């Protein structure tokens, strides 16, 4: 295991770890064009060195867990670009290899989380923030399983089932990862105390409570103001370590194709999150290395 001799589950039982921040905003800061429907996944084929460079930027900021560039990487999405299944599988494996290579060069311990984004991420139409795609649990399981099998086979430390907008998809993902041999965390995108699809978070977290494969539960890609209550619910319902990585707090204006509002992500909240049960803390969209560095310093000095 490059970068660590301790399992992620063991580490979470001992202390709070620092996650990385938004991969896409760091890639954009490096000058990458992410206007394609494949988003950052396009770079797995076109410029993988940029992805490794972004991972390294977060490690230097103090991140201990890297999330791979596979969030929007699916067989279906690659097929629309003329990429066959064999090559698509190789690109999925590459996402883990790039993060592992970066993690292997850090002086401290580092873990790799293979990102498994929701069905809506493949559609690239914003439905990942709504859920309720019109597919049932079995159909969603069939969609996710092939990608899960490839990513698990690449040897990550954990599968990040992340930005899940719907409790139905959460259950489907837990079914899709059965028997893959890799632990997982389950992270919902929420609005207040509800999933984006409108189900109570307590209901959405419940299937993970007795599942030994799930080493953490929580929320990501949400407003920072929604985190406090979500952490409490996740810890109470499941008794597991909580993972939390909200957005910067800015809002995306789809018509203007630009971000609006101010940054409300406050690293100083990490103390309250940790007290409520958070053991894996970082950022999502628009949270860059500077904010992750502040988080890391606060955790180190607490």
Secondary-structure element string:
HEHHHEHHEHHEHEEEHEHEEEHEH
What is the CA-CA span between the terminal residues? 28 Å
In what order do the strands lie side by side in the largest sheet? 1-12-9-8-5-4-3-2
Count of beta strands: 12
Per DSSP, the total helix count is: 13
Find the structural class using helix and strand composition: alpha/beta
Biggest sheet overview: 8 strands, parallel
Low-confidence stretches at least 5 residues in length (pLDDT < 50)? Answer: none
Radius of gyration: 17 Å
Q: Output mean pLDDT.
A: 94
Helix content: 40-55%
- Relative strand content: 15-25%
> Which overall shape is indicated by the principal axes computed on the Cα atoms?
globular
Structural topology:
Blueprint: H1 8-14, E1 17-18, H2 23-29, H3 43-46, H4 48-61, E2 65-67, H5 75-79, H6 85-104, E3 111-116, H7 119-123, H8 137-153, E4 158-164, H9 167-176, E5 184-188, E6 190-191, E7 194-195, H10 201-205, E8 214-220, H11 227-238, E9 242-245, E10 251-253, E11 258-260, H12 270-276, E12 278-281, H13 289-301
Please summarize what this structure is.
This protein has 302 residues and is α/β, with parallel strands linked by helices. The protein is built from 13 helices and twelve strands. The protein has helices spanning 8-14, 23-29, 43-46, 48-61, 75-79, 85-104, 119-123, 137-153, 167-176, 201-205, 227-238, 270-276, 289-301; strands spanning 17-18, 65-67, 111-116, 158-164, 184-188, 190-191, 194-195, 214-220, 242-245, 251-253, 258-260, 278-281.
